[in-house]
């Protein structure tokens, strides 16, 4: 049963090249927040925390975490803050070598948003192989994955 969804920020929720959120991002997060706890993880960059707060201020994302690097420990800290196990967590990201690999190593479910800069990459080991792949990230697609694969709602 999935209780928490952790989203990567850059190139997952935020299109760096266009300088804007992905289409219908806020709508997706608001709808998902009715059924799941949500968190956003991003690496440190000057002013990024304020930028994220401004973009998501009115949504129901309960936790935005800015870290020096994406690591197993940082993902596990987020899960501990929500009191959920890795097996109760869905990690959504665009980079096989970071979010997907870390998520798989700790036993979470992973969704690769195959879009943009890293979309042509291929998994190089078992940890980089996502559980699910989406080319369009939205509420219907995420909910479809959760329902089709029997990952019950909390």
From TrEMBL:
Pfam families: Hydrolase_like. It comes from the Bacteria. InterPro entries: HAD-like_sf, HAD_sf. This is HAD family hydrolase. It comes from Candidatus Woesebacteria bacterium RIFCSPLOWO2_01_FULL_39_25.
